[in-house]
């Protein structure tokens, strides 16, 4: 589960209807100020030009500021350099960097010239670099200096010719700093014009899935998809806010936020995620009086479990937007009680869906993902029969929207599998909606545990385990069983300095969940969890580890 930009503002009450058990986000008939085929880069460039003195970014580590005028000049210089070196509309451009003052420069420049943005991890092992290059075959890659060696070696092994631009500096390579220091006349900068996008389905970016259950898939997202994701501005959560977020541009969410903040007149407090922790994040929020935080559930969970709130009550914060994983009702209520001055909003979306699909409004139920977004249709389908289900019936979440992906890059077979004959995209997420139309996420289908033909949700068991004050994180996986199909096994990470026994946790689950949810394969304590390069828990490794324990 992942979220992207374009979330509806809390002041905007959801407008939707339910027809034949399909949730339909209604859309008022109104003229668009730009056609959907407009180059989104042109919208960005116009906004940067309209408020030259506005401070759009601050580097949290140095306090250095960057105005719209500086962002405009840097991004236009980069776009001119790209054109000069033969990079054209439709060319794939890799961007492998973290969050800093110049993160936006190659992103905006790529959009200006009609390039296809291909983001990836900023710290990349050689094997991962080989996969990225073979999948994307970029004409040029912007990359952090620490990953240049592996990227160049991977290109040689894959026999791929690619231009490399280092974000800071490295002997023997062109750097972004070199590009920005080149002498370009004022007339050339002011006379710059963005490429025209004739077909709204032309690709704007290829964003990859998390890869937590397999190799990441490249998701083709068009200029029309990006346009609908970031407009209209009056309905965006970040409007006029001072924003802090953790995701890098590796994620569709982090990438589109870089664009959204320009259109929503927001200020971005940027920082690298390499050395960030929850306490540091709180200090940044307090120092710069940030009003908006975008995060996955791990921050609020640790914020509560580690009692960080006792020293950091974040008085400036007005909105915390949570997405990316299950955000339980209990945790939602606890955070809302600790931070009564802030709205805690959960959203649901996918990279494959092109962005936001559902979002909470004021007074949404804790634990829900809110209501279907404008221009989006959601239904719940029976996994086996495909029949559309009614309220409070669990099934697969299926989506239709204006901003869905074109397909999976270079993967027609998986593209075909993702859509049914009626054009519905099957998310492989389990969920339901209630009688009021609020949507609830339950689990990934691939994570569901089959016990005696009963489908168990690991997220529900994890949620109960994490109710214990000594449990920092729990991950429940299946292990094969000769007669019962599968049994659930829990890996548990304790809060540092706190203790809990396996017996206590077994009792907690037994008291709060039905008999078939009991942890019959046991509980194992871990210091940390294996993770894939994107930071998500590597469930494939955990399943193998669990199987070895049982054997």
From TrEMBL:
It comes from the Eukaryota. GO terms for cellular component: peroxisome. The keyword Ligase applies. Keywords: Ligase, Monooxygenase, Oxidoreductase, Peroxisome. GO terms for molecular function: CoA-ligase activity; monooxygenase activity. The keyword Transcription regulation does not apply. PANTHER family: AMP-BINDING DOMAIN-CONTAINING PROTEIN-RELATED, LONG-CHAIN-FATTY-ACID--COA LIGASE. Belongs to the ATP-dependent AMP-binding enzyme family. This is Luciferin 4-monooxygenase.
